Structure formats: C-alpha cells, structure tokens
Amino acid sequence: MTTLTNYRDMTLELLRKEFRVRYKHLALGYVWSIASPLTYAVLYYFVFKVIFEVKTENYPLFLIAGLFPWQWISNSISVGAWTFYGNAALIKKTLFPRFLIPVVVVLQDMVHFLVSLPIIFILMFFFNVSLTAHWLWALPLLLLTQILITYSLNLLIATINLFFRDLERLVQLAMTFLFYMTPVLYAETMIPERFQPLIKYHPLAPLMINWRHLVFQGTIDLQLYLSSLLWGIALLLFAQTVYRRLQWRFAEVL
Q: What's the rounded Cα separation, in Å, for the pair 111 and 101?
C-alpha cells in the first residue's frame, strides 16, 4: 500500500511539473489544447464534405468524435522517442521507477482530451444527439483502455529509442500510416466487406470506432472493446518485458 501511495505521489508531482513547464509562458493553455484537433477538423471537413461531398450525416461531430481521441493517441505516441531523453537529468540523478515518466506523458494528454469533451457535448446538442446514462460506465472503460494502449506504446518506443536512435523517424511514418488506416476520417462501414474482419486485428481501430459509437449511439460495442482490451494487455506485457530487460542500461546510454 505504501508503494502504491509513493507511486501516486511521484506521478502527481511529475504531472504538475510537466504542466508548469508546458504552460509556463502560455496564457491560453486550454485554447491550445483543443486548437489543433479543431483546426484539422475544419480542414478535413472542407476537403471531404465540401469538395468530395462525403455522405456522412452530422459530419462535423463525426470528425470531432474521432479526431479528439486520436489526438491523444498521436501526441502520446509521437513523443515516445523523447520520453526518457527529455528527462535524462532526472533519470541520472534520482533513483525512482522510470516507468512513471511514460505514465505522466499519457495522463497529461488524457487531461487535454478531457477538457475537450465540452466541445463534443456542445456539438452533440447542436446536432440533436442525446447524451445517455451509458456514458457513466462506458467513458471510464474507454479512458482506461486508451491509457493502457498509449502507455504501453510510449514505454516501448521510449525504451527502444535509447538504443536505436532512428526509431523516432519510423514512428512518425507509422503514425501517419495508421491515421489513414484507422476509421477516423471515415466510417468503418466504408471499409470493403472483405477487409471488415481485419478491424479487430488493428491495434487502434476498435478503440476509435467505440469512441464514435459512444458519441452517436450512447454506448459501446463490447466485442470491439474486448479486442481493444486484449491489444492493451498484450502491448503492456511486451513493453514491460523490453523495459525490464534494458532499464539497467538507461543511465549509461543517456
């Protein structure tokens, strides 16, 4: 119990430090946390709805429901290569569980996602989409699963990048590829039928689909959720294994 309390206190302190550093000279901290996905939403709306005339109902809400959770995933994974590098001084001088640093990265991006939820609720009201009681249990489930997946990927990338410096560029390419291969800008029903069974083998697609289900249908698909959860557990076990085998060399390679 004492160990868990210490982990909690260290995590909260690191989280406070990260927020102080990130927003030290920014007066519009909240605005910047939602500006990026909103800007992309406007761009994608113009391209897909105005130019290509995509026949998706309530497309602005459709975009936001996918882009906001994707922004969380993208931010947490994209900075993975520098998660440990950015805290090199802390790792060298202080003896503490290094795996808490990726936890802080993911929780920080989760907070940014949570403060964007009012934008989703406003658009739901505007498009006459009901907010159901299922949010009370479905939202925590999706949050916990996304934390599990993004933490695992961040930890894995952060660990490997200490020994393979080119990983950062590969991650950038992979995230771009995954973005267009994930139903964020388009509905999963637009995927050709012969490829539909492959969705459950995609590490991020079931989660993204369920975020949109929650917004539009007020609940989630439990089969898709199970797929996301299994992906999260598998990635966590793999990431922790790699981390434990290599962590003893962190100080010498930083």
A: 16
Q: Which residues span the domain enclosing 72?
A: 2-253
186 sits in the region (left: phi over 0; alpha: psi -120 to 50; else beta) called beta
- The CA–CA distances, whole Å, from 21 to 90, 108, 111 equal 15, 12, 15
Position of tokens 């996304």? 146
Q: How far is CA 118 from CA 33, 38, 68, 122, 136, in A?
A: 13, 13, 11, 6, 15
- What confidence score (pLDDT) does residue 23 get? 58
Whether the pLDDT of residue 39 is over 60: the answer is: yes
DSSP 186: S
Residues 6+ apart with CB under 8 A from 85: 161, 162, 254
Task: Give the least confident one: 62-66, 154-158, 212-216, 244-248.
Answer: 244-248
Q: What percent of the chain has pLDDT over 70?
A: 91
pTM above 0.85, yes or no: yes
Which whole-number Å values give the CA distances from 101 to 52, 104, 214, 239, 246, in the listed order? Answer: 43, 5, 30, 14, 16
Whether residue 66 is predicted with pLDDT greater than 60 in this model: the reply is yes
Please answer whether residues 41 and 63 qualify as being in contact, where contact means their C-beta atoms are separated by less than 8 angstroms: yes
Q: CB within 8 A of 138, min separation 6: which ones?
A: 214, 219, 220
Token digits of residue 81: 């290569």
Domain count, the chain: 1
